[in-house]
Amino acid sequence: MSIIEQSGTFNLGDRSVKRLGYGAMQLAGPGVFGPPRDHAAALALLREAVESGVNHIDTSDFYGPHVTNQIIRKALHPYRDDLVIVTKIGARRGTDGSWNPAFSREELTKAVHDNLRNLGLDVMEVVNLRIMFDVHGPAEGSIEAPLTILADLQRQGLVRHIGLSNVTPKQIAEGRGITKIVCVQNQYNLAHRADDALIDDLARDGIAYVPFFPLGGFTPLQSSTLSDVAARLGATPMQVALAWLLRRAPNILLIPGTSSVGHLRENLAAARLMLPDDLVKELDRMASIAS
């Protein structure tokens, strides 16, 4: 059994993917804007990821913009049959690199076509609708209008499955009343666990949960606790954070991003890291550590 196979699998739509995938955001330049510093290294990283068994890549055409998808196409097209590429729409980049909502029919339709063209695909396997009522996190508000547009694009055959990103439980319930939702992508990690109940609810319904920022927003004391546990295990803090997420729930799919082949290998090795119960309890308490 290869290292990544030890992470297990879960269904994303009607496709089975390994639970440890790759997030392509960091393939773009600084601030996820413009080209990478080393284009050849970005190509090599993607090829190694797939050769290592990664079959779930998360991307978006607003990374760059366009840059990341064009790199994915150059590195991996024609794609392996088992590779699932997931994108997201609902935002556009300003000339200053800003992130702006893009929810009109014209913007969402263009975004789907841009992803298809730059990735070299006829249909997107999964498209996540990124809700932009607040750039920094989920905020309440109806998602009916943009989601209905995305569902129309699905009926046209451009999209197979639909997911949601940066959303509240209320918005997920609203979305599921409009169309089938196969995944939810929100910030979640050892320290930020607002979605605990949601993850369990989605697991019962067979819906994938894809957390981002596995080390995002930790306090110094939380970071110190994680580093201490990692040192005792002879692992990196990122490996421990990823291993904890894999253990947290069977429907969690991980998409750690990096622009370094070395870090990619370290991240994938988290699939074989076993966390003793006493250390899991110590890690679980991190959410309550405030400073």
Automatic annotation (TrEMBL):
The keyword Disulfide bond does not apply. Keywords: Oxidoreductase. CDD domains: AKR_AKR13B1. Transmembrane segments: none annotated. Residues 19-286 form the NADP-dependent oxidoreductase domain. Pfam families: Aldo_ket_red. It comes from the Bacteria. NCBIfam families: PRK10376.1. This is Aldo/keto reductase family oxidoreductase. It comes from Rhizobium mayense.
